[in-house]
Specification:
- This protein has 180 residues and is an alpha+beta fold.
- It has one domain: Aminopeptidase (3-Layer(aba) Sandwich).
- It has six helices and seven strands, in the order E-H-H-H-E-E-H-E-H-E-H-E-E.
- The strands form two sheets. Strands 1-2-3-4 form a four-stranded antiparallel beta sheet, sandwiched between helices. A three-stranded antiparallel beta sheet has the order 5-7-6, with helices on one face.
- Helix 5 packs across helix 6.
- The longest helix is centred in the middle third of the chain and has 16 residues.
- The two termini are 28 Å apart.
- InterPro entries: Acyl_CoA_acyltransferase, Acyltransferase_MbtK/IucB-like, GNAT_dom.
- It comes from Frankia canadensis.
- Pathway: Siderophore biosynthesis; mycobactin biosynthesis.
Length: 180
């Protein structure tokens, strides 16, 4: 059973360890100093940022991280993505990681994604869909999205998180289920 709780500063040492793991560092390409983690994740934990960071818990133990936000709250991101796909005003996005390498490749990623999408529908009733751009070479990530019910709706060049990656990204989307 996957449950969620908001990321707290006391989780930063675990998050730093995850960000340093090769399977995470390859795609997140994030600074891992204490200062960088506090700089980049602190505002959301204190409610000073529009993004929301959650720890994924499996049987109560932290196993991953999901960040979510409205794309419209990130104007530079919105402007970069808009030429590739139509962006509804209420679209949200997520980014995610599984912290420990031994937990990858066993279906946890799609379960985490699907669980967070369900939470988005309940926490953000205005959200009409969730869109996620993924660097095309990150097959494991875009396959996890597909297994969680997302469909590919576009592709094109975006600035990659890791400068070693080609700019080609696939854009995935899942729509809020109809209530009728």
């Amino acid at each position: 059973m996957i449950s969620w709780r908001r990321l707290e500063e006391s989780d930063f040492p675990t998050l730093r360890t995850w960000l340093e793991r090769p399977h995470v560092a390859r795609w997140w390409n994030h600074e891992t100093t204490v200062e960088a983690v506090h700089r980049d994740f602190g505002p959301a934990t204190r409610g000073e940022d529009h993004s929301e960071d959650f720890l994924a818990l499996l049987d109560g133990a932290p196993v991953g991280l999901v960040q979510r936000c409205r794309i419209a709250d990130e104007p530079h991101y919105f402007d970069e993505l808009a030429p590739l796909v139509e962006l509804p005003a209420s679209v949200m996005t997520i980014d995610y990681l599984i912290g420990e390498p031994e937990l990858t490749g066993h279906g946890l990623g799609p379960r985490m994604i699907a669980s967070m999408v369900a939470r988005i529908w309940s926490d953000h009733p205005e959200a009409s869909c969730v869109m996620v751009p993924i660097v095309a070479s990150n097959r494991a990530s875009w396959r996890a999205l597909e297994k969680a019910g997302f469909r590919r709706v576009g592709q094109g060049p975006l600035t990659p998180d890791n400068p070693v990656d080609d700019p080609l990204h696939y854009v995935y989307r899942v729509d809020r289920p109809s209530t009728s």
